[in-house]
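Notes to self after the call with IL:
- keep both proteins in one doc
- input above output, always
- annotate only the second one for now

Protein 1:
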Amino acid sequence: MRSRPRHRFADPVVDRTYRDRREAGAALAARLGGYAGRVDVTVVGLARGGMPVAAEVAGRLGTPLDVLVVRKLGMPWAPEVAFGAIGPDGVIVLNEYADRLSDGEIDTVVAAERAELARQDARYHADHPAAALSGRTVVLIDDGLATGATARAAVEVARRRGAARTVLGVPVAAPDAAQALASVADELVCPYRPGNFDAVGRFYQDFRQISDAEVHGLLG
């Protein structure tokens, strides 16, 4: 039986922005200090935006770093609105927006995202084999939590791969998504959950897109 979920949030503040994902990673690492130097911990960044944050966390904690590809499933007419997410090993999670779609519409989006997931995963792990997660404490890192769909998929992948404990770390999160994910992961660590949340990118001065090459370089 899993241990009771825990969550660690900072007190809400009026406004806060991170300079970039590296600064966000430093703030997150300060909250994850209890995992520093532990031989049973692996830090896993969600591709692509979570990887610079995860690299900073792993470097400060002195833990191995890997990448996990999870893909948002966007509404066909509004791709920015997620009706779920997919991950490796056949993982798929759906939310209430999926009820607005036919099975055929869902299947079309899933097929396209599965193809992109496979492409990214093959590139990132071409010369960096995926880390074995069985029996380990897996610290999953993303650059923010909006709907929580991709984070749910990531937690499920880690569990299917045998993780003994899942810790989800995000520098900023929508309060409702944070509350929901606190009961999904074994532990949720979030330094900032603003009441005026509208999009992850609003809380970064530099929120540029991360390339495949940058992800590959961070693993190297």
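Protein 2 (the one to annotate):
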Amino acid sequence: MNAHASSLSDTSLSPEPRLEQEEPAAPARAPRAPGALALQWATVRVLLSRDVVRFFRQPSRVVGALAQPILFWFVIGAGFSGSFRVAGAQGLDYQRFSFPGVVAMVLLFSAIFATISVIEDRREGFLQSVLAGPGSRLSVVLGKALGSSAIALSQASLFLLFAPLAGVSAATVNVPLLLSVMGLSALALTCMGIALAWWVRSTAGYHAVMSVVLLPMWVLSGALFPLKGASPLLAWVMRLNPLRFAVEGLRRALYGAEASLALGSPSSGAGLELPVLFVFAAVFTGLAAFSISRRE
């Protein structure tokens, strides 16, 4: 019994094993909130990539966008080749004259059909959810406009592969001017389409606006007939048409300054193409941002 008591006393007196105290875990650092510029760029990037991916996932739309200007250029060019005459440009055929105008038509039609998605996205509620996000109205406009412009530029670049058939020599092409005119024209036309599409509730109504505003704007740009032979009233309208500077800039970039004058481009617009197109794009970018900020 004494032995048992001594064993208990030894056990009670023996020091208890010390548990190592764990160091408290450092508090998790909260993720850093993205800056305002990052949010604007994310909005632009998402809308741009969405429109481009959606376009190239529709093969019929890609083929139709390229086949339409080719057929138009060959058929119209063949029909007017026998009766078309420009003073001071003997031997000029209509296909060579109309090629820059058809390039502008590709940019215009691409902008028209790309901005129809504004009406569809608005009706389905997608744009409302985007506008409720952290991106500004300007970033939404730039995202849609840059996506539509990228589609327009890709189609126009494919059509430019037929430039040698229009008598365009690679040695005379002013590539910086060509890319600048195409880029500014595509941006201006898409922003113009967005500004108009936001006020229209249906695609049928937008087609009516296209027939009344956008198509006459292209016809009176010097794409189908030169400004030299137009009546005084039409010549006055054509001089005020900003799309005229796109056609003249394309003509000067493809054929050179001297050849573009022989093809019917007035000397008064030479060198003004980029400033006018820049103002055209800036004005309609602002109008598009103002349009989508309208509350209903």
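Annotation: The chain has a mean pLDDT of 78. The chain has twelve helices and no strands.
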